[in-house]
Amino acid sequence: MKELDYPMAMHRLRFLITSLLVGVLVIFGLQAFAATTTVKAGAACSKIGATTVVKTLKYTCIKSGKKLIWSKGEAVKTAGQDLSLVTPAYVPLPPDGGTDEYRCFLLDPKFAKETFVKSVTITPDNMKVSHHGILYRVSAANVQVTKSLDEQSEQPGWSCFGDTGIPGATAFTPASPSSWISFWAPGGNFKTYPEGTGMRFTQGDQFILQSHFMVMPGNSDKDKRASMTVALAYAKSTVADLKTMLVAAPIEVACGPNESGPLCIRANALADLAKRTSDKAALQGTGLLIICGQSLRPVPSPISECTQSINSSITIYGATPHMHQLGKSIEIVYTNGSTGVRTEISSRPLWNFDDQRTDWLSKPITANAGDSISVRCTFDVGLRSQLPLYKNLSPNYVVWGEGTRDEMCLGIVNYTN
Known about the structure:
The longest helix has 33 residues, at 6-38. This protein starts with 5 loop residues before the first helix and ends with a strand. By secondary structure, the chain is of the alpha+beta class. It contains 6 helices and 25 strands. Strands 5, 7, 11, 12, 14 and 15 form a 6-stranded mixed beta sheet that branches. A 5-stranded antiparallel beta sheet has the order 9-6-13-8-10. Strands 1, 2, 3 and 4 form a 4-stranded antiparallel beta sheet that branches. It is globular, with a radius of gyration of 26 Å.
């Protein structure tokens, strides 16, 4: 071969090898695409015993009659996890006039003995409609009544605006039949608890995952279908029992000076909230006014705040702030009752809905009876003119509510006794 022809020959060789590799990758890519788009429970498969994993579900090719079909998907574990649980796929159906639905699903981790969970990951598979997910504990004594709720509904799960929907349950009472464990919200899906702590469960305890779906007009059923995966990792030994305290403030924000309409009247806004969500959810605002020692004839304000007293010695490990789309700022503060010294636990001077991570303290706070934790939020209804969410919605007087157009001012505090 002539010296001048050598570069040209090498160029052609590289071209042929690259073309071959691209062809192989395309073929395998198309095969993988075909597999992931056709593999589902009941769909045809070609080789008995074959398995494949789609998202977090493992499917096995089985024989049903004379056909080979994919089995019902089973949750699979990934590295660092001890268990994965998946809610049924669900197409949200918000009540008339609303864009939001709260749907609860019962999940059984099959706890056979005392177990400490050291981390929880909640992952939605459809961000188009997923607003948040809250994981609740259901004690073994309340599992049966929870199952009856599920069985009474024709669709997977049951409606649960305001809390878990179990008779006697409330959002803010620790002694209710269910209690808050962890949650997912944009920017805060992974919860690894501090060293030496974990969430304690006993034999027979189960979970409820409350899924908040937000559906915008024009979405097809395919666009709306969603599920969530809960992945757990267990502590290897007994650790301090980490608990959750909710510190919430009532919301009373009037329409802006350039806004008008029937929903700018508080009574009308409350009636609309009940219609869009539930009567029970609409009463939460009144409950918060009572809990926070505020007047039942509130004066509207863009500032919401509440202070909750600590009744016994606890150790505070961290907190997570939560608001909706009209929030400007939020801070969660611990105050020493003896000295009056204030310590910031969590703060977002400029609220970002997509940054709802937990702020773990580098040094936990030892708090005593007589100390307190407060939450303070500011809101701006002027943001309605800037956010696409409100484009086709009439202005409304804003109260504490479950809908995306409503608001929350919530500090989620993790502690041990």
